[in-house]
Design goal:
- The protein has about 500 residues and is of the alpha/beta class.
- The chain contains 16 helices and 17 strands.
- It has helices spanning about 5-30, 45-55, 60-70, 85-95, 105-125, 150-155, 170-190, 305-320, 330-345, 360-365, 365-375, 385-390, 395-410, 425-430, 435-440, 455-470; strands at about 135-140, 160-165, 195-200, 205-210, 220-225, 235-240, 255, 260-270, 270-280, 295, 320-325, 355, 380-385, 415-420, 445-450, 475, 480.
- An eight-stranded parallel barrel has the order 1-2-3-11-12-13-14-15, surrounded by seven helices. The chain has a seven-stranded mixed sheet with strand order 4-6-5-9-8-7-10.
- Helix 6 packs parallel to helix 16 (about 455-470).
- The longest helix is centred in the first third of the chain and has 28 residues, at about 5-30.
Length: about 500
């Protein structure tokens, strides 16, 4: 090695050793904090790697990355599933370059994390189908209870698993849906897991004044604590969790119907708060009952399971393949659901839990949520981008969803990329260009979810083709250097 390369090599070795030392010290402390919460032996290695990853990413590693790249070595940017083996492999290579003894990790150590993740993916979302690794989940419409042909079309188009939203229909309809799915899947010779998504405490518009007008930017309207004054000629509404209104302060944002109506609090009164519209289409927007309401600056502190959820769990605990947990935010929320499921399932094995990440607090607590759930149940995550975008802000959504993907890969927890995927195609029959790109990005998750609509089966087939093509080019964050097909010999010009 020449005299110019030697100092660089020694500097990189020192940087790497410092990073490895910090990981070893800090990871141990993180894992110790989870003691007594991990009862599933198969999750211990995943929790250990998650602790390594959290310790690894606590510090700025860009200088080390740049220096490693200049030496033609791994920049550590794709180490999520196997932090320890990656660090030891790079350290061994640097040692060999410096003429020191070197021992590399066994290839099986690198493969173990990916194998755990692929096993969990199959458990949650069914087997690979259609020549692609990423699975497709479809949300069943009410018609699926009585229209078996609809279910056949969805599964034939490439749906690997299905979702039942417990906010809609009832146990009688759910039972018929599940029966249709299982009969069709059996005939097709496939396994099609059923996710039942308990509703959770979603804040919604409960009532709207009879005199409500279409809202435009700058308009004033009211959010009431209680019943609306039917004699008033003002535009007003109430929500299903009225106590939350009292937590709003002046300038707090309030977003309605996925942000179609954006407003801010301009006054707090005895009977509620006064809002001014900040965002609306030029033609205005209508307030509608049942539409979601988000208050990003307010920590809602609502019970994680509603009275309806407790009733629904009687059916879910017996019939669902996977239990979806809406608006989970704290480890105590997980403890509550785990306890309720255990009461109902008795000696039956624990069901896989899919944690829906929808609030800033859930993002902040994600490592602890994964451990609280994964320590007792198989665990996965849904990036519920509708409410999440409203809560963290649309400008932060892309960053947050990336971080969730990385963290879950470190925990070997499969992820669902959800909300408004190919929305225009599902509802109107043709996708927008931006939606096509979004669907392609979803390939880095273990599963992509489509919502219900009249063109759902066509969207499943279209999405299947996109995911199949993207599998040639991408695995998680790693670009696959398969042969390019758009330019075959440089003769195109």
């Amino acid at each position: 090695m020449d005299e110019f390369a030697q100092p660089r090599l020694e500097r990189v070795r020192a940087l790497l050793r410092d990073a490895m030392r910090r990981v070893e010290e800090e990871s141990g402390a993180i894992y110790a904090g989870w003691s007594g919460k991990i009862f599933r032996g198969e999750f211990k290695a995943s929790a250990g790697n998650l602790a390594d990853y959290l310790a690894f990413r606590r510090h700025d590693l860009t200088e080390l990355q740049d220096e490693l790249a200049l030496l033609g070595l791994s920049s550590l940017g794709r180490a999520e599933a196997h932090i320890g083996p990656t660090l030891r492999a790079v350290d061994a290579t640097l040692n060999r370059l410096a003429g020191a003894p070197a021992t590399w990790p066994d290839a099986a150590e690198f493969a173990a994390g990916g194998l755990r993740l692929s096993t969990a993916q199959k458990r949650f979302f069914g087997s690979a189908y259609g020549g692609r690794s990423t699975r497709i989940m479809t949300t069943l419409p009410s018609e699926a209870a009585d229209d078996r042909m609809l279910v056949e079309r969805l599964i034939a188009a490439g749906s690997n698993c299905v979702r039942i939203n417990c906010a809609h229909d009832d146990a009688v309809a759910w039972e018929r849906m599940i029966d249709n799915v299982r009969q069709v899947a059996k005939t097709a010779g496939r396994r099609c897991p059923v996710l039942m998504d308990i509703s959770g405490p979603k804040v919604r518009v409960e009532s709207v004044s009879s005199t409500a007008k279409r809202l435009h930017r700058g308009d004033i309207f009211r959010l009431s604590f209680g019943p609306l004054d039917r004699k008033s000629d003002e535009t007003a509404f109430s929500i299903n969790f009225p106590d939350v209104v009292g937590k709003l302060a002046v300038d707090a944002p309030v977003l309605i119907n996925d942000g179609k109506i954006g407003a801010r609090v301009v006054a707090v009164e005895e009977y509620g708060v006064v809002l001014q519209v900040t965002t609306a289409r030029e033609k205005g927007e209508k307030l509608k009952v049942e539409k979601g309401v988000n208050m990003p600056t307010v920590e809602l502190d609502i019970d994680p399971l509603t009275p309806k959820d407790f009733v629904d769990l009687d059916f879910v605990a017996e019939n669902a393949d996977i239990v979806g947990y809406s608006f989970v935010q704290r480890p105590a929320d997980v403890d509550l659901l785990v306890g309720e499921l255990a009461k109902r399932r008795k000696s039956a094995p624990p069901q896989p839990l899919l944690l829906k990440i929808e609030t800033p607090l859930a993002v902040k607590n994600l490592p602890r949520l994964l451990v609280a759930a994964g320590g007792r149940h198989p665990v996965g995550v849904m990036i519920a981008r509708g409410d999440l975008a409203m809560e963290v802000g649309p400008e932060r959504l892309s960053e947050v969803q990336e971080e969730i993907l990385w963290l879950c890969e470190a925990a070997h927890a499969p992820v669902v990329w959800a909300t408004q995927v190919l929305e225009s195609m599902v509802k109107e029959g043709a996708p927008s260009r931006a939606e096509i790109t979004d669907a392609a990005m979803g390939q880095r998750a273990e599963c992509v979810m489509l919502n219900k609509g009249p063109f759902l089966a066509e969207a499943v087939a279209f999405l299947s083709g996109i995911l199949h093509r993207m599998d040639r080019h991408q695995t998680k964050k790693t670009a696959r250097l398969s042969a390019l097909t758009s330019w075959k010999g440089g003769q195109e010009l």
